[in-house]
Amino acid sequence: MVNVGKKNLVQQLDLILELRGFYPIVAIDTEFPGFIRDTPRNATEEERYKDVKHNVDNMHLIQLGVALLDEEGNTPWPGCCWQFNFCDFDPDVDASSPDSIELLVQSGHDFQEHRRDGIEARRCAHMICVNLFCQPHNSKYITFHGLYDVAYVIKMITRAPLPNTLNEFSDLVWTIFGRIYDLKYISRFFGGLLRGEIGLVGLSMLLDFEPEGIRHQAAYDSLLIGKLFIEMKQRRDNVEDERSESVLYDLEYLIFIGGALLPFPFLPPLRCLYSANVN
Questions:
Q1: Low-confidence winner among 59-73, 108-122, 230-244 (lowest mean pLDDT)
Q2: Is CB count within 10 Å lower at the N or C end of the chain?
Q3: In angstroms, how far apart are the furthest CA atoms of the chain?
Q4: Helix crossing, 9-20 with 121-132: angle to 10°?
């Protein structure tokens, strides 16, 4: 695992760019300071997105984890993953959930070290975008329960608050990520995985896959997500079908038709984050 801070940022991003052509699968995970607004389980997708926007706009990204894999699950070297540590979050003054901060501290996060040696997200946004994202023609991105991961990456790259509407947000998801797969959503259609109602460690246990590293460290979680994606592909050949492509867990029952969001609660979810041509 490579910890990335302000001193080695350029070097590591250059290395990642060199490797991207050989390792087109990019697994990502983020760590952030929890939630200041909770979303009821029965919320509509528009309501859910409003809460995502409120939380992400008012909080700071702490870590971005990245793992590169090829179609066989190989990584550039054993245990290869990157952990981008950001300096923007100050636990003494910034919005956060106390329970989340306690969990992150117990998982090994040193916020003073992040403040001292970490990256300022706004200053490196363009470089991270060019080297890691906005390459949908030759990449696929893998997340687990990735709505907030995706939202924080979009905020970092655009250096702006999230869009006001779910439609605009979905356009950005398609533009920045292209093909993206959410393992929690895919698990709904995978036998023996409790219809997706499990966490990342639970998924790895059900697949008899031994997690490595420390939970809630973004690099290790991203590597686990990538490895689980390969494991699921090897067990079933339809993991990457249209039902799963570009669908994020918690934003599943809306599709774009003619630039309008239309609910289809009784149909199978269909590429709900498809970027339509909106005039």
A1: 230-244
A2: C
A3: 52
A4: 20
User: Do the Cβ atoms of 184 and 249 come closer than 8 Å?
Assistant: yes
Q: Extract the tokens encoding 253.
A: 């029952």
Q: Is 90 exceeded by the pLDDT of residue 268?
A: no
Concatenate the DSSP letters of all residues of 169-215 into one string: HHHHHHHHHSEEEEHHHHGGGSTTSGGG-S-HHHHHHHTT----S-T
Paired residues of 142 in beta bridges: 27, 181
253 vs 265, residue with greater confidence: 253
What CATH code would you report for 2-253? 3.30.420.10
Q: How far is CA 65 from the centre of its chain?
A: 9
3-state secondary structure of 149: helix
What are φ and ψ of residue 229, in 5° steps?
Answer: -60, -45
pLDDT, tens only, 55-89: 999 999 999 999 999 999 999 999 999 999 999 99
pLDDT at 134: 77
Global pTM value = 0.88
